[in-house]
Amino acid sequence: MKKMPMTSVASGMGIEVLPDLYHYTVQIVNIAFIGNPSVSNEFILVDAGMPDSHEMIIKAAQERFGDDCVCKAIILTHGHFDHVGALEGLLKKWDVPVYAHSMEKPYLSGESNYPPPNTEEAGLVAKMSTTFPRHSIDISANLHILPKDGSIPVLPDWRYVHTPGHTPGHISLFRKNDKALIAGDAFINVEQEKLYDVLTQKQEIHGPPQYFTRDWQASWNSVKTLTELQPSVAVVGHGLPLADDELITNLERLSRDFGETEIPENKK
């Protein structure tokens, strides 16, 4: 995938959400590092950023975990271009397993392309979405399908939650002991359809990006599922992390009002 020029004021910014959970922004999307640098130089990467951003991600890993850092695995919340864009370059540096849900496999093994975007909603990013890559990548040599029981082989303290809607095999990651959540695009903290909001990272909790979401009832159910977990902190695919009362209050509102505020008119 070719590098895309779109970026935000938060690009290159890292936030230590917890001692072993690090949020990092790559242009207009977030990745997460799981691992405590005061304990080990090893980490797990969640999602793989924008196209051709591998050098930026590797540098962020080295700054966080040291020049001799060791990536143990990559976990994908889903296979959209802004979450797998740097995979090719990263796998040349770190030849590691890449874990994803079985229903996301066709988009990660060269079998199927994602459907065309919905461009009928307001917002410049929604209109631009026809130019976004939606073709399948093929990482079959590194791809590992996650177990059906919700466990994550490389992260025994975490489990994945199947949160379909945005894509068929979308997942979120949850750690029960401290209620930490990595939501992916199941819900986000910016109105992703509006270019100004994306560039300035204006905080506002929303459902998944409208232009690429296929199943809105499933998306709503996924938000309800994550709300029931009552997370204490959340790293999201787009926008800044959320925590505590701000997170719960806004997530409960989103879960309640989703049908009215999030589903595009032409999909109701």
Q: Give the name of the CATH architecture.
A: 4-Layer Sandwich
Shape: globular
- Ranges with pLDDT <50 over ≥5 residues? none
The CATH top-level class label: Alpha Beta
Question: Features of this protein?
Answer:
Metallo-beta-lactamase, Chain A; hydrolase activity; alpha/beta; 7 helices; hydrolase; 268 residues; NDM-1-like; RibonucZ/Hydroxyglut_hydro; five-stranded mixed beta sheet
Describe this structure in words.
The protein has 268 residues and is an alpha/beta fold. It has a single domain (14-261), classed as 4-Layer Sandwich (Metallo-beta-lactamase, Chain A). Helices cover 24% and strands 20% of the residues. The strands form two sheets. It has a seven-stranded mixed beta sheet with strand order 1-2-3-4-5-6-7, with helices on one face. It has a five-stranded mixed beta sheet with strand order 8-9-10-11-12. A hairpin with an 8-residue loop joins strand 8 and strand 9. Helix 1 packs across helix 3 and helix 6 runs antiparallel to helix 7 (244-261). The radius of gyration is 17 Å and the shape is globular. The model has no long low-confidence stretch (mean pLDDT 93).
